[in-house]
TrEMBL record:
SUPFAM superfamilies: NAD(P)-binding Rossmann-fold domains. Pfam families: adh_short (PF00106). Residues 212-243 are annotated as: Disordered. This is NAD(P)-binding protein. One of its GO terms (molecular function) is oxidoreductase activity. Coiled coil: none annotated.
Amino acid sequence: MARIFITGSSDGLGSVVAKRLVANGHSVVLHARNAQRAEDATTACPGAETVVTGDLSSISETKALAGEVNKLGTFDCVIHNAGLYRCSFRKTADGFPALAAVNTLAPYILTCLVNRPKRLIFLSSEMHQSGDSSLEDILWTQRGERGWSDSAAYCASKLHNVMFAKAFARRWPDVKSNALDPGWVPTKMGGSGAPGSIDAAVESYVMLAEGQEPGAQKSGRYFRPGKREGSPKSVSNDEKAQDRLLDICAETTGVKLP
């Protein structure tokens, strides 16, 4: 049996995956943004070990969440599933758009501060292929709300997630760190008309979370639905770019890479 922590698991794919992993006999800790969402998470997945709360758009709350997770002990796998897609600029108290905070800063903070697991999964998207590879103004402090594009911000953040997977795989050889594109599936985020298969997406989540199958023995890779390995944008393999992304996140959050 594995212990697995899943961010953003009060609904959508996070909740579906949590239920599948519980059914497979694993101990799953859920995450929700606030108390009401925590109730929703528990109702949807009553077999979960517990649920922790924290708003990932806040640097301070994300740091506090890491502390709460560590109080529960060490996990075999952490799935960075939480993410925002179509949304307004929504400037946070830290001065960044919520999408950039949740999709880029939060997985960095949690990976650095949560006790190191055996496996890391960073949720990406095929849309990362369109992400800005320059790493200029990744937090939109220069362009601001006037220059905001939720599509451009999302694509860039999903590229960052692939780069995180590869960077941590390289720096932590004892950890299997991979990126996962679940596909365009019919969830609240994807919309009812999405053509992808939820079952195929869940297969990839479960394979990487359980860590038993040959594909899960790899690290620094990019997986797609149906346990298939894909080819990410070439810049994601650039170690200097990876390190620059980590440095930007460290400087912004005050969290140093272990």
